[in-house]
Structure formats: C-alpha cells, structure tokens
C-alpha cells in the first residue's frame, strides 16, 4: 500500500484576513507581508540589511526555520557554529546566526520570547512513527515541508540540516536531556532577524499534532520584511 503526503499550497490567507495584524519589530518600509497557513511551508529572500519579523499569530506555534546564503546555498545555517561562537545553547536577542563557514547570516535584533530553540530539530513522517505509532505515517512533518518548499529553490534532501525552532520550548535539563513542552509564546509574539547578507529563509509552519510544541492546535504565522 502506498501512503502519500499532501503539503498545503500557499498562500492561503489574503491580506486583510482575520489574522492578527501586529506591527513589525523593526522600523522601516514594509517590503513583504505574507501569511503562512497552518501546517504549510514558506520561503523568501531577505536582502542584506532588511529585517524579517516572524509573528506567532495564534500563540505557541513552532516555526521551524532554515537559512541559506542566497547566492551560494552550500553556505547555510549551522546550529553547531552558532552555539559554539556564543557559548550558549539558546537563541536570544543579540544572537548571531552563523553559517557552516562561521560567517554571520542573520542577527536576532529583537525577541519577545525568553529563549528560542536551535537544538530540537524537525519532525518528519519517520520520526512521528517512531515516537507516536505507525498510525501517524500519513501526517507530513516539517521535513516534508522543507523538501516541498526547497524544490522552489533547487534544494534537495542533502541540503536539510539542523534547524531553528522559533517559539518552540525545548528546555535542557540538568542531566543534559531535552524535552518538548508547552510553549512560552502567546498570540502576536514576535522575533526579528536582520540579514547580514542576502539570505534565503525557508520556514515550516510546524504541522506536529502529537506533542505540545504547537499546543495541539496548528495556527498561522505571519512573515514581515522591513527595509530601513
């Protein structure tokens, strides 16, 4: 028996929809303002100096994120380099998101969440079946969203690396173990990232319904790019 996965098309929400119309965290002209439907992927080019504000519209909705050099996608976000350079596992205001070459890709310039996750990884059909049972195989995960959206930019499975998880709560316990627990976000909470070079940002509006990372209720995201 063949089981297929359907990834929702985008965009789903039109401007002026019922989504929370929070303002961006950075001043400047708005050059992009798009809504991301629950469970759907998104991607966009953010030019050097521009600021991307990600809005957690419904609250406690994980936004899995990959970042690439727009001119050379072989250079991409590296969780290991980011953690090593700052000496901290959490992403907070001021964190420089570094590439696999140790170079700055984006900087967190504003953040309304105490800490952001860069070690929890992305869900997938395979991990769902291992964690929650074979009956979940039909559910697509963030990996499938990344693969579907990545094809728009010539990316393949070889380009998927450890990702950021905006608005997801993954505490590191005293014994070094990790947990996925109720989020610390709320409707309208935001994080803002300044591009240090032209970057391609790929986001999966996480479709996970089997653990608390999305409060068991997948909700929309909003992506706003401002230019100083």
From TrEMBL:
InterPro entries: DUF1989 (IPR018959), UAAP2 (IPR017791). Residues 35-200 form the DUF1989 domain. NCBIfam families: urea_degr_1. PANTHER family: RE64534P (PTHR31527:SF0). This is Urea carboxylase-associated family protein. It comes from Microbacterium sediminicola.
């Amino acid at each position: 028996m063949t089981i297929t996965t359907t990834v929702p098309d985008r965009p789903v929400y039109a401007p002026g929809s019922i989504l929370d119309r929070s303002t961006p965290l950075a001043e400047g002209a708005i050059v992009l303002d798009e809504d991301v439907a629950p469970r759907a992927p998104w991607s966009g080019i953010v030019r050097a100096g521009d600021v991307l504000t990600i809005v957690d519209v419904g609250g406690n909705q994980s936004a899995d994120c990959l970042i690439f050099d727009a001119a050379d996608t072989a250079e991409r976000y590296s969780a290991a380099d980011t953690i090593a350079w700052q000496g901290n596992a959490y992403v907070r205001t001021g964190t420089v998101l570094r590439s696999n070459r140790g170079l700055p890709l984006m900087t967190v310039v504003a953040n309304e969440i105490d800490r952001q996750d860069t070690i929890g990884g992305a869900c997938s059909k395979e991990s769902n079946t291992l964690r929650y049972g074979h009956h979940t195989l039909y559910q697509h995960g963030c990996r499938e969203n990344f693969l579907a959206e990545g094809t728009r930019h010539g990316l393949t499975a070889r380009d998927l690396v450890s990702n950021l998880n905006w608005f997801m709560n993954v505490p590191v316990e005293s014994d070094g173990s990790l947990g996925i627990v109720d989020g610390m976000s709320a409707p309208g909470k935001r994080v803002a990232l300044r591009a240090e070079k032209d970057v391609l940002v790929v986001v999966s509006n996480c479709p996970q319904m089997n653990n608390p990372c999305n409060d068991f209720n997948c909700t929309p995201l909003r992506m706003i790019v401002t230019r100083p």
